[in-house]
Design the sequence.
């Protein structure tokens, strides 16, 4: 897009999208649909870009600030999801660039992780301010990292360091900053059981989809209880074994049919055209995408699946509120992914509370959570033996080896601060500016930012598999900026 020099091209197209795709009207409709949260993806370039990175810097932040205003106005809360990290955490297009993933993986894996942690800290400082902390109440720190390739140990250390940064910004205890939401990294929920006991307000994020597995031509009506039997027990167990567990994404899709559901130009498993791999063709996707001709049986089947999903998952976010019209056909081509389209056409419930009891046989988890899990007594008192097992950084990362031999950054840079909005009001005959915060909650959080060492060499953040630079740094300069692992002291109490 940045290279598109045609009339109307370039990165300015993105701002046109920001201005027109999601507006205040959408927030009003979301509230009117009986929903109480919005999950909003935010990329790292909302904060900054570095030399040569082809993203539109800072503009998306302006529109996120509008989202905070609209959420406040319509009584909604925000789950802010850090969705695109430098180098990519999963290699998928929604991480910023399709291809390789380079966070905690490969020769730039530690440098990209260092930089990502800085951005997590910057976001946490902003949303922990009293002006925003009652609206932005969940912070998903990294969307869908490729945990099974990264490894559970390295991912856990990264998550622990993020926890330290966030709680240093927010303080400990209910009302001090957001719940910290961790994606399960595609590990089973059970592998996170009892992780970080006594951590202050953490949540486990699962994205349960059945549409990306083996495909079936079975009619929609046969999936009526599938969410109950597939997900209900897992969520119940995790609510007890880990604590707050939520489905950060789910959809109504039971096949991978739909325009670009798998990515641009990648085809579908259902029609046998998906790459990579070999997939037997099941049939045509038309019956699954031609929503204008769905009959009452199809619509009822989708609604039943939606209700069962809501009840089984208990704490959930539907992906996504809205799908744009195809520029070719002029209509939505992935209908089972649009909550709004379902409301408009009769396959989504007008009140999601009617989902309660759909999975009557699976025994919904019985609250409450333990006090420390919601910021009460004992919150933040993680045993020293646990924190000692998750020191940062890891000594090695996958597909690269020893961290001491890899490019890394040094904490000597200036830390960016996210700007607040400007509000004015009349007071008597004068116009005054309202206090919207200064972007930084904890003035004692004064550590410098991670930046390149002038005399060391670095690879492209999205390099993929490659050998580290050799020599890593010029003669007389330390070959690594990675500190020895340290146990971070307790965040401040507030």
Sequence:
């Amino acid at each position: 897009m940045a290279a598109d020099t045609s009339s109307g091209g370039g990165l300015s197209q993105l701002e046109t999208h920001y201005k027109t795709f999601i507006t205040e009207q959408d927030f009003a409709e979301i509230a009117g649909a009986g929903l109480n949260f919005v999950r909003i993806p935010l990329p790292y370039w909302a904060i900054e870009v570095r030399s040569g990175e082809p993203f539109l810097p800072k503009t998306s932040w302006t529109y996120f600030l509008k989202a905070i205003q609209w959420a406040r106005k319509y009584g909604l809360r925000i789950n802010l999801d850090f969705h695109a990290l430098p180098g990519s955490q999963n290699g998928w297009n929604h991480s910023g660039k399709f291809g390789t993933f380079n966070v905690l993986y490969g020769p730039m894996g530690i440098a990209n992780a260092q930089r990502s942690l800085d951005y997590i800290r910057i976001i946490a400082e902003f949303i922990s301010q009293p002006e925003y902390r009652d609206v932005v109440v969940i912070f998903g720190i990294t969307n869908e990292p490729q945990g099974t390739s990264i490894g559970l140990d390295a991912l856990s250390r990264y998550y622990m360091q993020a926890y330290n940064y966030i709680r240093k910004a927010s303080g400990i205890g209910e009302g001090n900053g957001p719940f910290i939401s961790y994606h399960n990294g595609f590990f089973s929920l059970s592998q996170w059981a009892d992780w970080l006991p006594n951590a202050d307000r953490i949540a486990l994020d699962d994205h349960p989809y059945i549409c990306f597995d083996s495909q079936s031509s079975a009619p929609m009506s046969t999936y009526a209880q599938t969410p109950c039997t597939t997900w209900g027990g897992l969520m119940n167990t995790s609510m007890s074994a880990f604590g707050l567990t939520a489905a950060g994404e789910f959809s109504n899709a039971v096949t991978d049919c739909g325009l670009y559901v798998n990515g641009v130009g990648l085809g579908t498993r259902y029609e046998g055209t998906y790459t990579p791999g070999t997939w037997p063709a099941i049939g045509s996707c038309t019956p699954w995408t031609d929503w204008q001709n769905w009959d009452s049986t199809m619509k009822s089947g989708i609604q039943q699946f939606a209700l069962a999903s809501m009840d089984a998952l208990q704490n959930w976010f539907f992906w996504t509120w809205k799908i744009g019209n195809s520029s070719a056909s002029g209509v939505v081509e992935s209908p089972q992914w649009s909550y709004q389209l379902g409301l408009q056409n009769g396959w989504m419930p007008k009140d999601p509370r009617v989902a309660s009891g759909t999975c009557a046989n699976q025994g919904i988890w019985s609250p409450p959570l333990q006090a420390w899990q919601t910021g009460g007594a004992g919150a933040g008192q993680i045993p020293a033996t646990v924190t000692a097992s998750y020191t940062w950084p890891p000594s090695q990362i996958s597909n690269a080896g020893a961290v001491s031999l890899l490019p890394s950054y040094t904490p000597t840079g200036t830390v960016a601060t996210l700007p607040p909005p400007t509000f004015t009001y009349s007071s008597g005959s004068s116009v005054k500016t309202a206090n919207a915060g200064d972007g930084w909650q904890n003035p004692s959080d004064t550590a410098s930012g991670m930046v390149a060492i002038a005399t060391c060499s670095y690879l492209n953040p999205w390099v993929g598999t490659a050998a580290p630079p050799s020599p890593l740094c010029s003669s007389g300069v330390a070959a690594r900026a990675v500190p020895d692992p340290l146990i971070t002291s307790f965040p401040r109490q507030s």
Q: What stands out?
A: The radius of gyration is 23 Å.
